[in-house]
């Protein structure tokens, strides 16, 4: 039997996932992190993007987080996200529209605050679309 760890993914609104996993992969500000059982303790800030949870028997679940914190203890990983959703629950049409709007604002070169907001919205939309694409690939496999 493979070693496992307990994973909790929590947003400001609700708990998205709680269960046993073999591995968790998330995108931190420093880069992509792979967390296995008995990983050393750490705290990392997450960028908008995917959190992949490899469950026992090879199944994988994909989540989208808009940023937050990743806390690692030897047998427990907690993702505290501003917003978190299962990739299967993401609306691809809304993400494409948000990406288009953000690109228009960036092209218009408006004030700094609008540009910063547009860059953040673009990063979130792209991360959502990547999570949707990853889920599609998993379903085909």
Write a compact overview of the structure shown:
The protein has about 140 residues and is of the alpha+beta class. About 35% of the residues lie in helices and about 40% in strands. The protein folds into two domains: about 5-85, ATP Synthase, domain 1 (Sandwich); about 90-140.
Characterise this structure.
By secondary structure, this protein is an alpha+beta fold. The chain folds into two domains: 5-87, ATP Synthase, domain 1 (Sandwich); 90-140. It has helices at residues 92-108, 112-140; strands spanning 5-10, 15-21, 23-28, 31-35, 42-54, 60-65, 68-73, 76-81, 84-86. Helix 1 (92-108) runs antiparallel to helix 2 (112-140). The protein is globular, with a radius of gyration of 16 Å.
Rg of Cα set: 16 Å
How does the helix and strand content classify structurally?
alpha+beta
CATH class (first level) name of the largest domain: Mainly Beta
Task: Spell the H/E element sequence.
Answer: EEEEEEEEEHH
Please give the share of residues in helix: 25-40%
Mean model confidence by pLDDT: 83
CATH structural fold name of the largest domain: ATP Synthase, domain 1
Largest sheet: 9 strands, mixed
Assembly context of the chains: single chain
Give the full name of the CATH homologous superfamily of the largest domain: F0F1 ATP synthase delta/epsilon subunit, N-terminal
- Which term fits the overall shape? globular
Strand content is 35-45%
Name the poorly predicted regions.
none
End-to-end gap: 24 Å
